[in-house]
Write a structure and sequence with these properties.
Elements lengths: L7 H10 L1 E2 L10 E2 L2 E2 L5 E5 L2 E4 H9 L7 E3 L13 E3 L3 H9 L9 H10 L5 H8 L3 H8 L5 H17 L1
The structure holds zinc ion.
């Protein structure tokens, strides 16, 4: 029997659960507690692909990866806190993004799924801060006013893949 394919939602949920997040101190390192590579980076399988954990965290929480993903917290390669990660070639853009404010920032489907996975564990305010969006957006995502269709599509696509095997 073919190995069951996880939905993106399930994978993200699993990934988030492997992050040691101190919810009282979300600014601390989120140390990945899954498989660790010899290099010291975490490893996680997502969408049939092996990722270094911090790169996946950046991809999920922040956005597209142009180049290297580097740590601001030197010495903890397992850290996946999006606030501690930055794109190697993208420092100027990051600064721009930080000064643009939160209102209306577009987030992707994965980020929406992460927010759903984390809601209940983290306050709306904290989620808004992590993902650099407004609290209203967080609220809408939690209440399925935004993104419900996107998440449904992921599940449907995945079911389609299962039927094909
Ligand atoms: Zn860190």
């Amino acid at each position: 029997m073919a190995r069951q394919i996880k939905t993106d939602e399930q994978s993200i949920d699993e990934f988030v659960n492997l992050l040691a997040v101190d919810f009282d101190n979300p600014d601390y390192c989120w140390t990945f507690s899954g498989t660790i590579l010899v290099s010291g980076y975490g490893r996680f399988r997502f969408q049939q692909k092996d990722w270094r954990a911090h790169r996946l965290a950046y991809h999920l929480f922040v956005g597209d990866i142009d180049n290297d993903v580097l740590h601001k917290c030197i010495g903890n390669r397992r850290c996946c806190n999006p606030l501690h990660l930055y794109g190697g070639d993208n420092i100027d853009n990051q600064d721009d993004r930080a000064t643009q404010g939160r209102a209306g920032r577009k987030i992707n489907m994965y980020q929406a799924t992460c927010i759903k996975s984390l809601s209940g564990l983290v306050s709306n305010n904290t989620l808004a801060c992590w993902f650099n969006i407004s609290r209203r957006q967080v609220n809408n995502i939690r209440r399925d006013k935004q993104w419900y269709r996107a998440v449904d599509n992921v599940i449907q696509t995945d079911l389609g893949m299962e039927n094909a095997t």
